[in-house]
Amino acid sequence: MASRSGRTSLRLLVLAATLAAVAALVPTASASTSAGLSFTKTCGPDYCTVDNSTRPGLIPDGSTLTYGGPRFDPHLSSGFVLETSHGTATGHCTLSWTTGIGYCVIGGGTGSLAGFHATLREWVDFADGDFANFVFHLNGTYHID
Question: How many domains does the chain have?
Answer without folding.
Answer: 1
